[in-house]
Design a protein that fits this description.
10 strands; 6-stranded parallel beta sheet; 60s Ribosomal Protein L30, Chain: A; Alpha/beta knot; 4-stranded mixed beta sheet; alpha/beta
Length: 250
């Protein structure tokens, strides 16, 4: 079977992978300053007869393909994300589980930050666009997520508007984040799918039309909008506080 390898950078992210799926780690590389912090991981790899090595800084940068590696890089076997199906969407709705949908978010750092926020607030899954310009889980996203990408499920959808229609039919409130024109008002008791658009262009017209409601974060007007990861944090916090069963805030 063909192996699909990716790299995870940063100690928190690598530890999270070892806790969730240690068998997926194929090789581990680290610098001298990190060696004492990865002893248990090295012991596990030794028992599994897998490669682990302390390397010089220059070599670690080459392996990570970045100077921002956090002192450790794990090469992992990571199958590509799968696409949700209508029965799955109905099951998620039955379990009253919210989700995030990223409509062509292209920056890996934003993907990582959004995944970290989702994990922090207990949003169990995230769907990324199948578009070639969309960011995928990789070294930068894993490092920024600080373990968040291993705390949530990541799915992909080749057609975001089609996915949003499927979620709406399953019963989800499909909420699109928009720089302007969003509607105020209370949410109902239904689970929600929050849709976040591309950093420069926002939601595509087709994705926007597939949403059941648009949300806009009110601001001072001195800048047009927030970074997409900041907007995600604000909206997830607000939605988590307003969802059915969530504690009321004073």
């Amino acid at each position: 079977m063909k192996r699909h390898e990716t790299k995870i950078c940063g100690l928190a992210a690598v530890r999270a992978r070892f806790e969730r799926a240690p068998e997926s780690v194929v090789r581990l590389f680290f610098d001298a300053s990190t060696a004492k912090k990865v002893g248990a991981m090295c012991a596990a790899l030794a028992r599994a007869r897998k490669v682990y090595r302390c390397v010089e800084a220059a070599e670690l940068e080459k392996i990570a393909e970045s100077i921002h590696h956090g002192g450790v890089v794990a090469v992992v076997d990571e199958p590509p994300p799968r696409a949700p199906t209508a029965p799955l969407a109905s099951e998620w709705y039955r379990r009253r589980e919210n989700l995030l949908v990223l409509d062509r978010v292209g920056n890996a750092h934003n993907l990582g930050a959004i995944a970290r926020t989702a994990a922090f607030f207990g949003v169990p899954r995230l769907v990324i666009a199948g578009d070639a310009t969309a960011a995928r889980p990789g070294p930068a996203a894993y490092r920024v997520a600080e373990g968040g990408l291993d705390a949530i499920e990541v799915w992909t959808a080749p057609d975001i508007p089609l996915l949003l229609g499927m979620l709406a039919r399953a019963g989800f409130e499909v909420l699109g984040a928009a720089a302007r024109g969003g509607e105020p008002g209370p949410l109902g008791a239904r689970p929600w799918a929050l849709v976040l658009g591309n950093e420069e262009h926002g939601l595509s017209p087709a994705a926007e039309s597939a949403c059941t409601r648009l949300l806009t974060i009110p601001g001072s007007g001195k800048v047009e909008s927030l970074n997409v990861s900041a907007a995600a944090a604000v909206l997830i916090h607000e939605l988590s506080g307003r969802s059915a069963g969530a504690p009321r805030r004073a």
